[in-house]
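User: Show me an example of a complex going from sequences to structure tokens.

Assistant: Sure. Here are the input components:
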Amino acid sequence: MTGELGQLALCFALALSLVMAGAGLAGARLDATGARRTANGAAMGLLVFVGLAFGTLTYAFVTSDFSVALVANHSSTLKPLIYKISGVWGNHEGSMLLWVLVLAIYAALVAGLQRGGERLTSAALGVQGLLAAAFILFILFTSNPFLRLDPAPFEGAGLTPLLQDPGLAMHPPMLYAGYVGLSAAFSYAAAALLVGEEAARQQWARAARPFMLIAWIALTCGIALGSWWAYYELGWGGFWFWDPVENASLMPWLVGTALLHSALATERTGAFRTWTLLLAIAGFSLSLIGTFLVRSGVLSSVHSFASDPTRGFFIMVLIALAIGGALALFAWRAPGLQGGAPFETISRETALLLNNVFLVAACACVFVGTLYPLVLDAVNGTKISVGPPYYALTFAPIFFALLLLVPFGPRLGWKRGDLKSAWRSLYPALGLAAVAAVAVLAIISPRTVAATGAFAVAGWLIGASILDVRKRKGARASAFAAALAHAGLGVTLLGVAGTTAWRSEALTVLAPGQIMTVGPYTLRFDGVTREKGPNYIADRAHIALMDDGKVKATLLPEHRLYPTEGQDMNDTAIRTTGLRDLYLALGDDRGQGRFTIRAYVSPLAPLIWLGGLVMALGGCLSLFGRLRVRATEPQASAQALAAE
Amino acid sequence: MKAVIAFLLMLVPALVAPTFFAGSARAAPVGDSFSNPAMESRARNLQRQFRCLVCQGESIDESNSPFAADVRHLLRQQIADGQSDRQVQDFLVARYGDFILMKPPVQPDTWLLWLAPFLVLVVGGMVAWVTVKNAASTGG
């Protein structure tokens, strides 16, 4: 019964999304309040019915209703509850339903907040409605999660053990909140182009900003979570592999970051109006392309659950329509846009423009690196791989240059800035950079140019952020938010540099009682025991961390076998001081109680994800600061003007 | 055809050498590691430059797959036989194609790959320059 209910709810949702599209677009063209009210109502209804469909599927997963084919193929009764729930989106069909659910949530937010006036909101809802309809059609025709299985099997096939992990349970919803959040920016951009009114065109960036911020925060967290997961789950101590699927999430982040900065100028002075529109379109387009790359099976990896050509084709058509439609609209309407206020060569606007140039180049690098092998293979059959060395030579220098310039941005005034005084005010940050570089050279070996440079730049970024916060006490939340986000970049950079330059590792075959050393640590292997988990059997190694002949701690890396799924997995043991990780993974059984143990000491590794968190916090601060400012709008903007 | 011959020629030392030098005092792959730290770090460095062909995005250094283990073994044999890094690379490329290289080769059909990011940077910079100049001139 539940399956049919879900299917029915999805059909209603399709109807409502079409209503929302029609009424929303009509409400934008005419002065039809009735149409707008209908669009708002449809947005709420869409959320209810998609929520119902999603709830139904979740219920089927939680109760292990194996008469639903999807549940039988991707779940089992033995799984802990959290993985039964995360199993809902641990497969193609369910993850697409999650996508639509997030889209419906954003549509309801757009309808509820009514930012940027009725006409703009209505047009944005219309575009959201079109997107929702397209995705629901995609689900119903190629990826129906509610298909039945008769007879229902006694036990399900289980969920890939890789996905049975708390980090990865949260990773897809986070990423989708980011991807789809960019759809709200996209819809507002398209709405601004659709609505001829000059006021709407001026307001859209301001109206869409909270959605851009939410999307950016979610993407930042999602990417950090994914990277953290790869670190502790894959068992090799790496945190970023430049895997096409990781790249698919990095591209929208880079463009989304560019969008946040460019929209700042558009909102403030009307500068770069067309460019910001184009970025909003590009951001969501890259989200769609990312989804296509991941879901179509063009790139095979843990993430691609299905490689069904119909689906790939359908998504490709969907992308072509969305991107093509938006670009056509852009080409048609954008030339009519008015330019913004003039600004001088040395100004905040120029700084933001430079930020965009570098971010777009960085994104181009990831884009080319990800797609070039596919294109080359199609063109002349040459198969090449684009791995980390490529990005080290292209992405790294471009991003590095960007980081060098970051501290200048907040120090240059709108319309006219003073480079000399900005530079002078940065002396203390320069000092911190020098101290960081010298400290690295003096204290830590081996000495590497890259790590020294990275530390200097991190010192530069963090120093500048501290100056920002100190100097502008009582300043607006947005300045504080920017400082926090920029400092987060520095923190992540410290982590990346520390781990890359000074990671030590040891790979040893040990018999029980034997000792190994890695970095400053001495470890004693105390043998392996067989443990039984809820849905797996594990070989658990007992490894004592020794300190002066005494056991200081015991680490328990495991090798797990999931019988239902017929797969095995590593479960690493990580002991962190916050500044340094001791990382253990259990390797293969060498007989007679001997096992291979892989041990890594990763200095500063936790900072990689801490930096991501700091960036996200900066985003949150900007979001809530803005909401607060909005409440006291006239006063705040008066102050802001006075401050200039 | 040339590639096949080259491949076979390269295979010869790989097959013959271990039997030839078995029992010699030279460092040889012990399980999966060299006792000589310099050779070990060389091997690890090299391993990071080759892709595991049956995985996605993992180097043979990181992969758990049997394929990666085989290639690691081959690579270590080559090192033990005194081959240079370049020779090891040529050997593996002859055997498995360019796809095994983590760093794409620089050749006419990959120029665009290598240059595109910087082209975007340069073109973007020029567009930004024009934009800024225009904005400044309308103001002044």
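The lines above are the inputs; the final block is the predicted structure for all two components together. Chain A touches chain B through 58 residues (CB under 8 Å).
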